[in-house]
Task: structure prediction
Amino acid sequence: MKKAVWSGAVAAAVLLLGSTPVFAQQTANAAVAVTASVNAKAKLSLGLAAVNFADADPDVVTVYTSAPIAVDVKARTTNGGNVTLTVLANGNLVSGATDFIAIGTLTWAASGSGFVATGANNQTTAQTLGLWSGSGNVSGSHTLSLPNLWSYNTGTYTVTLNYTLTAP
Result:
């Protein structure tokens, strides 16, 4: 019987010495700091690069009207920040050295949320074409119109309209 007790005691000692105690485990912690820089951005896309009014009889076509120009605005700004789209002509419609059509006669109609419904182009003061609050993207259309008058001198009249999108 003594032999059985000693054999059991030896077996228990071997089990205790060979096992790994649970309280000896270690843990480690780490952290990662995440930073995202979000700056003001403005992106403007116009559906047409040029508008051409073909010659027409002023008694038949009294007003030249362009096809709608798609306008896509994407802006990222501060909470409630004003996003503004303006247009400024680089002068009058000019043909040759002396012939011109006053830029104020080139008018527009716009549609879409936040777009100014109607206006006239100007060469001195940028005209507001759209105004929005906060970040986002909007789409609309912009149509140009010009009276077709008998009083115009013959020629090809040109002007550049400069669009500026601002998202402070």
Summary: The chain is about 10% helix and 40% strand.
